[in-house]
Amino acid sequence: MKHLLSAKDFTRAAAVELLDIAEDMSGVQSREVKKLPTLRGKTVVNLFFEDSTRTRISFEAAAKRLSADVINFSATGSSVSKGESLKDTAQTLQAMGADAVVIRHPASGAPFTLATSGWISAGVINAGDGTHEHPTQALLDAFTMRRRLHGAGSRGAALDGVTVTIVGDVLHSRVARSNAWLLTTLGATVTWIAPPTLLPVDASAWPVEIGYDLDDAIAADPDVIMMLRIQGERMRDAFFPSVREYARTWGLDDERLARLDEKTLVMHPGPMNRGLEISAAAADSVQSTVREQVANGVSVRMAALYLLLAGQTEENDR
Ligand code: ASP
Ligand code: CP
């Protein structure tokens, strides 16, 4: 694998292979010494033009646990504020010998531009680009579902027949888009539930079912319900009447939580707006996988870096 840009690029076999490697990586994380020498001598650059807590920290932990050197770059505090372009920033990284660049950017397509421009020779991983994609989030979500539904160590398994309902601000969510591609590739059925104003205009072209009523969606008894954050920072218009109205109609509140089957997994990529799209009780319930998703993110990102960079070593040695 040269780059990891989109969940759409994964075949079922490639996705299952990555999840299987992530299983091996999670075994490493429960050891006392959580480190493998696999990527010794490699340099991973975290290039973040947009805020992040989980993704940035977990890529850093993943690279370090594979013994790579890590350089963290965030646009705030860098020469981007002096007007430096993505191209010049990238070429600076190239000069520093980056083997992989993990990029988060507010512009959809920025990781693709970086990977195909010829500005750098490093492998590129998309850590979230605008409203477009967040493929490693979808991979960690799939990994979390597979572990909870099929048990830890369920190598080789996909998600055939699993029903996943994704609720909320689909319009601005790269998580919803990447999950639509990846989960359906793995055999799951995905339904997007949202107010019409928060669905993409081309929603019917996606490999998902569409619905507008959260209570109907709960009555359909899905295996997984994934709540999305209302992305205030991407909203320039009023997409719903009020926060209270949104929480009442689209939020997973305590009363809806009580109606969910106790086996239904409650997921959220984070960061959460507690009290808006999800209640504190739902976020902290035994059904919630929120903290597991973060822990699994490290294993999945170790697997991604391994596939990108360990193969590179073998190719170079040949
Ligand atoms: N953290 C995820 C993302 O960056 C989800 C979110 O921010 O709502 O896409
Ligand atoms: N889920 C996710 O991508 O979180 P961050 O935005 O904090 O990285």
How would you describe the overall organization of this protein?
There is one protein chain. This protein has helices at 12-29, 54-65, 86-95, 110-116, 135-150, 174-185, 214-219, 243-250, 254-259, 280-283, 290-317; strands spanning 43-48, 69-74, 100-105, 123-129, 163-167, 189-193, 209-211, 224-227, 265-267. By secondary structure, the chain is of the alpha/beta class. The strands form two sheets. Strands 7-6-5-8-9 form a five-stranded parallel beta sheet. The radius of gyration is 19 Å and the shape is globular. Residues 313-318 have low confidence and may be disordered. It binds aspartic acid and phosphoric acid mono(formamide)ester. Residues 52-55, 128, 137, 269-271 line the site of phosphoric acid mono(formamide)ester. Aspartic acid binds next to helix 6.
In short:
By secondary structure, this protein is an alpha/beta fold.
| Percent in strands | 5-15%
Number of strands: 9
What's the overall average pLDDT, rounded? 94
Q: Which class of secondary structure composition applies to the elements?
A: alpha/beta
Spell out the CATH superfamily of the largest domain. Aspartate/ornithine carbamoyltransferase
CATH architecture of the largest domain: 3-Layer(aba) Sandwich
CATH class of the largest domain: Alpha Beta
Multimeric status of the protein: single chain
Gap from first CA to last CA: 17 Å
Instruction: Give me the side-by-side strand order of the main sheet.
Output: 7-6-5-8-9
Radius of gyration: 19 Å
Enter the CATH topology name of the largest domain: Rossmann fold
Integer count of domains: 2
Number of helices: 11
Task: Tell me the helix content.
Answer: 25-40%
Low-confidence stretches at least 5 residues in length (pLDDT < 50)? Answer: 313-318
What would the principal axes of the Cα set say about the shape? Answer: globular
List the bound ligands. aspartic acid, phosphoric acid mono(formamide)ester
Largest sheet: 5 strands, parallel
